[in-house]
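Form P-L/3: holo structure prediction, ligand C2E.
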Amino acid sequence: MQGLYKYLEGSSSTLEIDIYTKASMVAMSHSVEKVVKEYGLFADIYVLFQDYKYFLYERERYLEFDQLCRQVFIFAENIPKDASRDFENTTFVELEAASPLLEEWAVTVIHPDYSAVLATKEIPGLQRINKENYRTFEGFLSLDSEIAADSAAYYQKLLAQKEINYLDRDWQPAELKNQKPEFQKLISLFINDSLFELEDKLRSLEEKEMRLDEMVKDNKELSRETMQKLCEAGEFRDEDSLFHILRIGFTSALMYRELGADKKSIENIFFASLLHDLGKIGIPDSILQKPGKLNAEEYEVMQNHPEIGAKILAGSHSEVLNMAYNIAYSHHEKWDGSGYPQGLKGEEIPVEARIVALADVFDALSSKRVYKDAFSREKCVEIVSSERNQHFQGEILDILLKHLDEVYAFRRDLKVFSEGKTTREISDYFFSVDFSIFEFLKMREMINS
Ligand code: C2E
Ligand code: SIN
Ligand code: SIN
Ligand code: FE
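OUTPUT (holo model):
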């Protein structure tokens, strides 16, 4: 059985098909029914509701129609067993999951002096923040009594198929007269009033939504900018240190993804990990840039950097900065408890810090430093593997080793990407609101699979 809208559209050539927004649909369906109430008409009403939840918004109104009308039919999906409680003249008809009527929104009112059919089919829609208000429908509103009779016949056939009993009619479609002119006038008056009111409401809603969109975007821009400034203050005076933190960010995001973190957390660890060495701000360059090995005293000073970073990042309301705090504070802790500054052990160390600890060390090993040359991939693997369950949690180590190709591929991509660009340009790219670590992770995933 085809849908009501298609059935009626096929049976009459005089229908004016239009596109309606949800607001117009509410206005028109309410107006069509309001005539019944205004004149106390002993009418039949058939309504297609898609899902029963939509009917619930209207239940109070339909309790009135139930008393007023000869009979009311509510067609919907997900009708609960006790739906008809409190109703006397209303029949609830459950639609099957595959029914074409589930895509339609329709109201038919039929009475010897008045009839109206609003029949529409939903246009699968624009996805916006507030989707409900942007639903659109294709269809028509007709006050033609023959269309109403066709519509009633359609529903009766459906009821017969489903073997649903309903009251015997005490008047027949043949008795239908032409529309009384005052009904026609009234209905357009109602529609205008109600549309005006609804479009007004919709406008203010739309404005609110736009403001919210902007605020979210502003906020994101602001927080990315803040992180960029912090990173610039702490780390990347030069391209190498920018590359270092970006690789750590990428590697950490990748590991966190493999540990099953949700999207928000993955994005957070990418940005939060970039700040892991923020505390190096407070370490003299004479130590940071020393070409050779640090002596015990210098190394002691160096070991203050996690606490300095943590002090700067403490007490934030932002989720990502709180994560950055944990990472800055604990990225030199070791799984076996022999790290600094607090000597935390095992799961006492926040998981983000356990991840970044490994990403940081692996990147330090595989890169040139003022105090050391870059080690080969094999050598790096050998060093970190020897630290299983000592410096690094075994489970996290395994994830890194499994995805090492991806980590090295990112290294190469980053180099290629950065050719001919200034440090500022590269930094602006990764901290722009449009940058998405998921695009990066996804791209790599597709390349590797
Ligand atoms: P970083 O250079 O980013 O190194 C981070 C971590 O990677 C180090 O933390 C260490 O755990 C590991 N790592 C780096 N190079 C090696 C290596 O050759 N062998 C092994 N097994 N592990 C390595 P750590 O030791 O707490 O050092 C923190 C920071 O202190 C380093 O960050 C670096 O900025 C500075 N630093 C450490 N040792 C020296 C040094 O001998 N000379 C200078 N100039 N700076 C050093
Ligand atoms: C509503 O959106 O208020 C009901 C319309 C429908 O049946 O989808
Ligand atoms: C970089 O230039 O730091 C990234 C490339 C690499 O070290 O292999
Ligand atoms: Fe560090």
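COMMENT: The radius of gyration is 34 Å.
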